[in-house]
Design a protein that fits this description.
Rossmann fold; 17 strands; 408 residues; 25% strand; 35% helix; 2 domains
Length: 408
């Protein structure tokens, strides 16, 4: 992976290849190297987001295990936040108690992020959050901070996708998302983009997060047969939703679209043909043949031997890990120099597996968004294949990490 900070290449990959890492898998016991950089992976290993959380852990470990930056080794602290905000807060308090953590990666759930917010921001750690929700400020409030960098914002995935759906799929769409912070933010941003392009939202279904039987929520869709559905049902319950959508015969009349969190390759073996034909937006295309992605997939396959390959959750954590190493190198290992670390990340250009990546004044990524179709394969489960690219999507200041966020 190539980097430049202030348009200068400063990160030497060879310098990151050696070193030692100490793992603490939720034991509460940490063996801290004298000069170690402490990185806390506060990610779900149980509950609805266990799959995405496990992927994020694998992505971070792929880079950080055995790594060094500026001559300092890496100490990984891994805790299970689950999907319960109180559990996430407890884990954050536990890990951050002695203020020795330099970087935090996680969690997945925006509700858990909200619970952890004050604890993390009161610490000296720089916080990498995989997903943030533009428009979610009433609940998440306070995520506009120089210390926070996002892996993706709902604006990039949802708002930019709205005009594409209007032009290429349907004039009328029914929204169907889990009723929680990120789901509601996703719906609001898609609605703004779709209606702004002249489309009409004909209805909305809001099953609670954790719903596993969607029959009652699908009744209005069965009755009205809208042209298309925009959905965000993440985690394992998304499998149930897609299969029930197919079982009720809705694929014949209603085009299934949404964020690819609902159709991630990780879950397609379980979804099978029920997912074929779905159109989704994502900030990563595993099948992309750019050099950084080829290297990422090869390293992932060698270490983990998982048939589905890496997901975007692994990719984001992989990017975060490279980013924090680059920032440490740029400050000559001084993790107490918060301003220097933040400035290094703000001026960082990455050749990421997702394509060109930098950070805007809102600390959201500037990146491509890929439109993908779930396609049947001659052998094996369906796969999501890129069919179009929405290039260089940047989150506007007025809907940044927390709304009205400008850190320039």
């Amino acid at each position: 992976m190539n980097y430049s900070v202030s348009r200068r290449t400063f990160l030497k990959q060879a310098g990151l290849a050696a070193g030692a890492v100490t793992l603490s898998l939720g034991s509460g016991i940490r063996v801290l190297g004298q000069d170690a950089i402490n990185v806390a992976l506060l990610l779900p290993q149980t509950g609805t987001f266990a799959g995405p959380g496990g992927e994020a852990i694998r992505g971070a470990q792929l880079v950080l295990e055995g790594a060094q930056a500026a001559g300092r080794s890496i100490n990984l602290i891994i805790e299970d936040t689950g999907t319960d905000p109180s559990q996430g807060l407890e884990k954050a308090q536990k890990v951050l108690a002695d203020d020795s953590v330099d970087f935090v990666i996680g969690p997945i759930s925006s509700a858990v992020s909200a619970a952890m917010r004050d604890e993390v921001l009161a610490s000296r750690a720089i916080w990498f959050i995989p997903t943030t929700g533009a428009g979610a400020s009433p609940t998440v409030g306070g995520l506009c901070s120089p210390k926070i960098f996002a892996g993706v914002n709902t604006f990039a995935l949802s708002n930019a996708f709205g005009p594409w759906v209007k032009e290429n799929v349907a004039d009328e769409v029914y929204i169907f998302v889990n009723n929680y912070v990120f789901g509601n933010s996703t719906a609001a941003q898609f609605r703004a983009g779709f209606e702004g392009a002249g489309g009409t939202i004909v209805g909305e279904g809001l099953p609670p997060l954790g719903t596993s039987d969607f029959a009652s929520f699908l009744t209005p869709i069965i009755n009205d047969r809208p042209q298309a559905l925009f959905t965000f049902i993440p985690g394992g319950n998304g499998i149930n939703f897609v299969k029930q959508f197919d079982e009720f015969g809705l694929k014949e009349s209603t085009k299934l679209t949404g964020l690819e969190s609902s159709f991630v390759n990780l879950f397609l073996p379980a979804m099978g043909d029920a997912a074929v034909g779905a159109i989704s937006s994502l900030h990563y295309g595993p099948e992309d043949d750019n050099p950084a992605n080829v290297a990422f997939k090869a390293a992932y396959a060698e270490k983990y031997e998982r048939p589905t390959g890496p997901s975007f959750y692994a990719m984001m954590a992989y990017d975060f890990a490279h980013t924090l190493l680059a920032a440490v190198e740029a400050t000559d290992g001084d993790t107490g120099n918060l301003d220097g670390l933040v400035s290094a990340i703000e001026n960082l250009d990455l050749d990421s597996p997702r394509g060109p990546l930098s950070y805007s004044s809102t600390h959201d990524p500037v990146q491509n968004i890929y439109v993908r179709e779930t396609q049947a394969q001659s052998a094996g489960p369906p796969l999501n294949i890129i069919v179009d690219t929405i290039p260089n999507v940047e989150v506007p200041v007025e809907v940044g990490v927390d709304g009205e966020c400008d850190l320039s």
